[in-house]
Amino acid sequence: MMISRFFFPCPLPDSGEIELPDALAHHALRVLRLRDGDPLVLFDGRGGELAARLQVRGRDALAVRDEYHALERESPLSLVLVQALASGEKMDWIVQKAVELGTSALVPLQAERCVLKLSGERAHKRVAHWRQVAISACEQSGRNRVPEIEPITGLREYLASAAVGSRLVLTPVEGRRLASLARPDAALHLLVGPEGGWSDEELAMCRAAGCVPVGLGPRVLRTETAGLAAVAALQALWGDF
What we know:
Elements: E1 4-7, E2 18-19, H1 22-31, E3 39-43, E4 49-57, E5 60-69, E6 79-84, H2 90-101, E7 105-110, H3 120-141, E8 148-149, E9 153-154, H4 155-159, E10 166-170, E11 176-177, E12 188-192, H5 200-208, E13 212-215, H6 223-238
Parallel strand pairs: 1-3, 6-7, 6-12, 7-8, 7-9, 10-12, 10-13, 11-13
Antiparallel strand pairs: 2-5, 3-4, 4-5
């Protein structure tokens, strides 16, 4: 039987019973239909996880500590997905699968040809939503550290940020094969263009900032496919696949 895993939004206490927050308790009792005494796992995003048992007291739900496990399921490859905004539910899909595949962070990027345009309060709400998607993906996949979902930024602002290690930019033409690259000795950032593709100016900006153009074979992939395919390939090359 699969044991339900829950993200605990505060540092887990070192001892004693743990009162579950209302949202967590609702999900455990009303959505998953867990019963008194059922096993569960709690993690707070700092690494490691706590095995516990559910205890129901009237309307309150608590976790009774069992054993703490200092488990790490993070990839040895520090991989940041810099993803141009995709329309509809595609960004939810990209965030979810990127977390499952082991990316360490995701930077949503507002590119010139993005169909989806976000700013102000809408942008803040969408980023908060993606952070919840990332948490759910960690609960499902067994990760004990929640990847950071950065605020939405423009390409120029992102490229002007402090040095971040190696940068790769996906392009359907003139890109090097991933297998021809040397193993990075620091964090690796992977830039993925929007549904309309990078503009010539954006590609020029990327090259000027030191991004290495890479390709994924002769076929043109959709934005929701390209980044995830590249992440999986990089994990096979230098990660834990």
